[in-house]
Amino acid sequence: MENLGLHKSKLYSVILAAIGIISCLLPWWHISFGGYGGVSINGLHKLGIVAFIAFIGAGALPFVMGDKSQPYMGQEKTIAMACFGGAAAFALITLLANMHYLSFGIFIAIAVGVVGLLLLLGKISVPKSIDDKVK
For position 2, what pLDDT does the model report? Predict the structure, then answer.
């Protein structure tokens, strides 16, 4: 992790964004046809694609803007908060628009967006390294 040169908050944001991207590929709805099988629909439909793009933006941001070794500051922090908040909001809107046949992917996307936003707002602190806890 040290070789990437990323600050801890940016590293956690990249990890959360990767989890968010994966959650958009997971099923958001599952419709069962009984003994005839069923169909799963991932998050790359309707407003889910906007959440997918927002997670991509949140993951790419530390690599294309600002100093990677410094924490989020100024406009970079605002853009990252907008990406995570927008992803959570669009996933929540999608959830509220269709409350039937829900699957686990949409809940992961909402949780990751909210956790990313809270991390950037400072409501959740970045964990200290294990070396600091041992001393």
Answer: 55
Side chain identity, residue 31: I
Give 19: exposed, middle or buried? Use CB within 10 Å, 0-12, 13-18, 19+: middle
Question: For 123, what's the count of Cα atoms within 13 Å in the CB-facing half-sphere?
Answer: 7
Decide: helix, strand or coil at residue 119.
Answer: helix
Cα(87)–Cα(58) distance, rounded to whole angstroms? 9
- This prediction's pTM: 0.86
Q: What is the 3-state secondary structure (H, E, C) of 52-101?
A: HHHHHHHHHHHHHCCCCCCCCCHHHHHHHHHHHHHHHHHHHHHHHHCCCC
